[in-house]
Design brief:
heterodimer, A: about 190 residues, alpha+beta, two-stranded antiparallel sheet, 6 strands, B: mainly alpha, elongated
Amino acid sequence: MSEDLTRRDLFNKVVRGTVLATMGGGAAFLVQKAHGQVVWQVDATRCINSRLGEVGVAACNLCTTECVVSLSAVRAVNEYSKCGRCNICPAYFNITSAVDEHGYPSQKLCPRDAIIRRPIGKVDPEDPANNFYEYLIDEQKCDGCGKCVIQCKEPLGLGSIVLRVRYDRCVDCNRCAISKACPKDALIRVPVT
Amino acid sequence: MMRTPMCHLDSARWGSRFRLPTLLAFLFLSLTFARLAPAQAIPYQRPVETAPQENTIGGGYKTPPVQKPLPRDYWLQMLDVMVLAAAMGISVWLVLKRRSRKWLLALTTGSLAYFGFYRQGCVCPIGAIQNVAVALTDPKYSIPFVVTATFFLPLVIAVFFGRAFCGGVCALGAIQELVLLKPVQVPRRLDQALGLLKYVYLGLAIFFALRPALARDFLICRYDPFVGLFRRTGAPHMLMLGGAFLLAGMFIGRPYCRYLCPYGGLLAWCTRLAHRGVTITPDKELDCGLCTEACPYGAIDKMRAVRRNCLYCARCYASCPRDGELAHAKAQLVTISAGGSQS
């Protein structure tokens, strides 16, 4: 009977060793395959809002409505080096609204008032149209609705505003809820930069 | 075959030849512009064709940096893995050595706070099943070290000590453990039949995860009933499902863990090899059966702990008159009364 017990122990040990070795092998394979951290990101060349050639379509706000975190992890980012710093920015002003007494559109485009407009240097009161303006996006307010992105594109803008995932808010879902809804498959996995 | 690269070379050279004069003209213009700007504005039309740069704008203007918040630091992610390992170590020690339900409850609460509400239920080994399955089969998909470690650590522990992860560490288990107030025994046949569901779920989850990249779906994460509660936001139907599981969990011990958790299936399989697990002191047994009644998970069969079902909750110790805190309390009572009778 004791012999039977030891044989059973031996069998158990062999099986346990095999299982552990298999798990170790699997883990080693996965670790050598891993190349840094990958995160979800919006591909600006696919996103309807920023893709050139998509003109006359309504702004897509699926990034705002589908994201699982309360204020979407996607928001608009102004690539300042590409920004035209226009006097009348089509992304800041609602250019279809009535013109006020100073000659500017009377309404802002952003529903959350997340864009800050400020002049660069001194404004010449005679000719404010030739002054440069800086457009900053308030990260705390923006929810990535894409309205400004689609306006800052040809023919009026230079396409400096794009939608981006803010990595600090993104919870890195296994299958991003936005990517499931996105009609253009614009949410892709990229390495962190 | 050779033409194409040559063409590219040519165009590149043309590009550079053009660029130098343009750049010079640009620089000259920008300098003049900077000089003249205060005196007399140069009239031009907007919208502009090219974006003005720092040197075009002049006046010491600096382009603001584009906000790029980085993801959670790597060392913090490594810390998560270490917390996971440490919590499992403590769970094994508390259950197998200290045999203390009280301290295990403290650990459970701590894990719920850390892995549940602070880490918002991610990354967890249950969902990692799918990522590991995809990474093992898809050559283009890889997972970070943290995910690999999170997936394998509880399995390795299970091979040696049983389901220590389920006991004091898993946030999904912890939230159910804490709401279980009036446990009822599920009939054994029904319990066993429902227990098979988790293997079906495991199979389905792997099947959907292994589909081609665009059709890929992560069922376990999508239908995780508690992650919405941890994040305190989510689709209404998922929040309601979570609430329903918690409501049922007040009477049926850990319904998700026992009948649906696919990782529980893997762990149960691993515990068959475990060489130590929860024991209910057969040497000083009373055969009173209090532990069997106390076990809400049907993990005590014929007065023996069934390792594959045992969720490391330590309720059996707490109910035992010969073990755990109850026994210590009794021992003290006995000595006091003994002292009283002597005097």
